[in-house]
Amino acid sequence: MRRPWRVAVVGGGIAGLAAAVRLRDRAPAGTEITVYEQSGALGGKLRTGDLAGQPVEFGAESFLMRDPTGAESAAVALARRLGLAEKIVHPTVGQAALVIDGGLRPIPGGTLVGVPGDLDRVATVARPAADADTDGGRPLVGPDADVSVGALVRSRFGDEVVERLVDPMLGGVYAGRADDLSLVTTMPALARTARVEHTLVGAVRAAQAAAPRAPGAPVFGTLAGGLSTLVEAAVTASGATVRRDAAVRELTATDTGWRLTVGPTRDPEFVDVDAVVLAVPARPAARLLAGPAPAVAAGVGALDYASVALVTMALPQPRLPELSGFLVPSTEGLLIKAATFFTTKWGHLRQPDGLAVVRASVGRYGEEAHLQRPDADLAATVHRELSAVLGTSLPAPVDGHVQRWGGALPQYAPGHADRLGAARTALRAAHPTLVLAGAGYDGVGIPVCVRSGETAAEEIITALGGSAR
Hints:
The protein is an alpha+beta fold. The chain has 15 helices and 22 strands.
């Protein structure tokens, strides 16, 4: 009689947990799933905390409702699978602003991550280069090429559009610079149309038309009660054995699968499994791959990351604009790169006593030295800069929290997709029961990570010769 499969999921973030749920749903009955998490907390960058007596996100705040094709996103589908669909809520205030010359200006509509499809609409915040976006008789980007977002947009729209629109929009997601980030990985829809269209305006409009959104349909969602409820529900649904504070230090190929070396060097535990989902960031993944797949490890480990800090404050009855928040171009010289007015943006979080929760993001790629400052110093600087931007003296916070995320956000340089594709092809050929999943490989955002984990689970099932149920 054939024994049940044994599958290890290394990494308890949302990608690893999504993989565990998919394995439980599709793998043969009786499959033994174990999740190994180095820290004591599951969920990765999904972490709901408590501030002034109410749940507040100390990590990821929301998820996209739709995928690039216009279909339901993987995050929404997972929430539905876990019985959480009725808990999905949407922003009640969607308008955000940019800090331009020290003041707030509404972010213009009609852009794709800040790249305009109508140059007239962005004139309030940036002056596009005159007549630079001409039809040269060929597509903007070659069929197999990748460029930085900044290089493409600068060549067509000029510096101001990059610095005042695209850079802060990308910086809010990746904490990186448009001039360093891959078009293919960070803006795949635009990359596809740029391989066909001869102007950037045309490429933006084509990308927008390819994924139409019904008027009034919400773009973002979150869960009432916090995103940690998604984590808890995924753990329960997966039926996995969860090992917290369990560092996997080595992977060794065996005749029947893999041997994991778990725990401290002086007292290691050895665990044999049939397959492994490696759902950890690129650098720890590279260390584990160094033995069985050194060439793959070298390619994967080249990915760099940015660190950020999230400073959250509960303010008694502040005077806040009716905005979801604002983004800050690096040219403004502020420590803050973005701010969210939680209790304005999310109606379900509003308090009858007027207590407001505001969160600011600090830290850009290459500027990690600013994050070495003590928590109190960061919080005081954020409070001072918020007051200056809003043109009012904000009240002293009644509660606060500083969450530091070291090495949190991947910096996808041009060519990332090709490098990853080559690494995965080599890994499948040599070790089909060892699969990568997570933000370091497929992109940031909860839906992308969920889909990455689910795809990894499907690959494991195929490699072990099982059939989806």
